[in-house]
DNA sequence: TACAAATAAGACTAAATTTGTCGTATATAA
DNA sequence: TTATATACGACAAATTTAGTCTTATTTGTA
């Protein structure tokens, strides 16, 4: 199945919300989770991850929250997905970081590998070209 | 996660195999499953589905099997995915056939819905443009 | 006609992944 | 000192995907 995970979907909703507030005002996890009826704990973790990967910046404590620093034109969908530790690799053999042993067993004889790599390249461009601006 | 399911992956491998044999020779499920070390039963079901949806044609009995009728240029990745009852709808709200009650609960207040629909349109074109020829 | 090879179809189980929860720690403004 | 907010990781529940098993049907050939 080709689809956004909830994690990605919630991240995009939150990013859109934060982006629309401009670069001065803070948004809190609670504020967003209330607004969209998303589990607070879940969304909080997602925002933490985005902050850790510098998609957004965070400020702790009272009156803190999250906001944007970068221009919405400079943050791509690729970056967002990757910062969530998600992937848009169409097949196992195309995953960047795969230190796990769950690798493909038939990679040796697989004739799909090469053609699918070409499709993957086109998909990479696709996701690189979509920015937060497209959500605003 | 954006990725091909095994079902799709196996389907593509099989289709590639069948397509490369031309339009005269038959390929059997056993032949393909042996060649690529794919579970026979699983692959068989996939091929049955592809046949049911006229991606390939099937002939029962001894010396039977599957082969192509259409030109590889005329079968798109979209059609293959859909014929397997899989989807490339990025979000729940974008699924074509969703008579189930597992619909999105926050669709009313969701501000991501519209921008994601535009991205979906571009993705549809992406998958419509890839044909079996791209696997050969 | 009997048999073997092959597709057809669906129920069922197992495995993997995703989604969501909980508890605890840390920082900061008032 | 307290309330508010992020940070982080372990865990549990739910869902989806992957794989197996069983039975039926079709068809060429010995
Ligand atoms: S090697 Fe082939 S079967 Fe294995 S993951 Fe890559 S494309 Fe899929
Ligand atoms: S309405 Fe919004 S949250 Fe619901 S599925 Fe569509 S995009 Fe996702």
List the helices and strands and how they pair.
The structure is a homodimer of 136-residue chains.
Chain A: H1 6-20, H2 29-36, H3 40-52, E1 57-59, E2 65-67, H4 77-83, H5 113-129
Antiparallel strand pairs in A: 1-2
Bound molecules: iron/sulfur cluster (SF4) (2 copies).
One iron/sulfur cluster binds at residues 91-93, 104, 106-107, 110, 112-113, 116 of chain A.
The structure holds a DNA duplex (30 and 30 nucleotides).
SS elements, strand count of chain A: 2
Mean pLDDT of chain A: 93
The CATH architecture designation of chain A is Orthogonal Bundle
- Largest sheet strand order of chain A: 1-2
* Element pattern of chain A in H and E: HHHEEHH
Q: What pair of chains forms the biggest interface?
A: A-B, 39 and 39 residues
* Spatial shape of chain A: elongated
* First and last CA, distance of chain A: 27 Å
- Please name the CATH topology of chain A: Arc Repressor Mutant, subunit A
The proportion of residues in beta strands of chain A is under 5%
Biggest sheet statistics of chain A: 2 strands, antiparallel
The named CATH superfamily of chain A: Winged helix-like DNA-binding domain superfamily/Winged helix DNA-binding domain
Please characterize this protein's 3D structure.
2 copies of one chain form a homodimer. Chain A has 136 residues and is mostly helical. Chain A has 5 helices and 2 strands; from the N terminus they run H-H-H-E-E-H-H. A two-stranded antiparallel sheet of chain A has the order 1-2. In chain A, strand 1 and strand 2 form a beta hairpin. The first copy, chain A, is elongated and about 60 Å long. The interface between A and B is large, with 39 and 39 residues. The site of one iron/sulfur cluster (SF4) has 10 residues of chain A, from helix 5. Chain A binds a DNA duplex (30 and 30 nucleotides) through helix 3.
